[in-house]
Design goal:
Chain lengths: 280, 263
Amino acid sequence: MSLVHMTLTAAPATAEAAPAIRRRPSRAWLGLVLPVGIAVIWELLVRAGWSNGRLVPPPSVIFDTLWDLAKSGELWTHTLATVSRVAAGFAVGVVAGTLFGAVAGYSNLSRRLMDPTLQALRAIPSIAWVPLFILWFGIFEQSKITLIAVGVFFPVYLGVMGAIMSVDRKIVEVGRAFRLSGPALVRRILLPAVLPTYIVSLRSGLGLGWMFVVAAELLGASEGLGFLLIDGQQLGKPAQIVAAIVAFAVIGKTTDWLIASASAPFLRWEDRFSARGEER
Amino acid sequence: MLLLDHVGKTYANGVRALEGVTLNVDRGEILAIVGGSGCGKSTLLRAVSGLDRPSQGTITLDGEKIAEPHEKIGIIFQEPRLLPWLTVAENVGFGIAHLPKAERERRVTRVLDKVGLTDKAGVWPRELSGGQAQRVAIARALVPQPQVLLLDEPFSALDAFTRTDLQDHVLALWADLKPTLIFVTHDVDEAVVMADRILVMRPRPGRLYEDIDADLPRPRDRQSAAFDFVKRRVLAALDRSLDRAVSVDDRQDKAEQGAAMWW
């Protein structure tokens, strides 16, 4: 029976796989059509003299600005400052969020004890903490990193707690039936089961981290991509502002992609709607 | 030998799911438990597995008290409950992680061969059909070589053809190691095909009602008169257990319908 089964399923699978592979590159390009198209049109409009491009600089000017910043080494200084703030805040936020989320998800008592407080804190717009953080931690790195960590903490906390609470009881029972100890149950059942949700919450945490680093740097910094924004506004250099925004977009997307692709090998087992035709 | 001594289970909400169940199961015996819904079949099985603790009475296996999952007792659930992040082979080897790698691989390969899934060793559970997934679950429970194997309506989610196929599979596997098999089922045919002894339970509170010998030669012929005789005894006991007033000629009809499934 299984032989018949295999040949039956094998035939259409190979037939489908071939065109899917050929089509893939064109699909990736599809995402670039809109931004590149708009950039080219804007560039042409400015070149043709339809707009002076002073307030909305054309791509070529933005590129020049980025190039100049890169040549003078400023771009690296600012990028490094911003990235290290996000990295530090993200690390603190993820560790705290994971620990609190795991404890709250695992134990009903701790959830009843601390979840209401944490939810109340979550309702506070995080920017509201800034004055307090500056009083507590000063105007330098510590207050900025704390703000970013607070931003990262909540999505990670909520994601981990929700994921642990929603692990299928039946699967946990399999672990019990095979007499797994507490730590083994966590390592062999709970962790793999929550991994997909965890990755999603890490990614949204990182997104918030990038948001809050801008807020922190706008409120007072002498370096960082956020400082470039403020500096560009105060000196009337829109190209520098857009250049900084472009840098944010590129770095933000890259870090998100890093998390996504680092986790991909661990999530190949997922039975996802979006995975149709990716593998088989 | 597995001994149940006045086992009872009362849930926190006061429901008496099981009361005064006393039972001996010999080593290597195949025992089927049938009964209407809510008669405590699954509760009984879960108590034997150690996943739930009985509120009264004791369960002992070769003199050892069972109060939590035991290495000599394996369980197969109604759903395969495979871990989706492990391949088929890793799922099968889940319960023997403490053994050295070579021994683990040897046992997994052997049992996968026995359930006819050698070619699926490396695939994810999502790629299996329902019957294949349940075969993997059976393999996973068999790999630690349990002395007692519990099956909680293991085939009820499968189509009739796959079900018959798996019944034969389980019997073939049983002949190999001769573990004690205790299975809960809704399907009287399944009980008569597989079991040495069929326990009929009655509800509210769940307790044993009748103990029917199904001492037919194996392999069993579903068409034989002896098979039919045992089946009718079980169906009649089931009807009585549910306090149904059944007239004699009516019972004949019931038995015919019951050939498929009687609930």
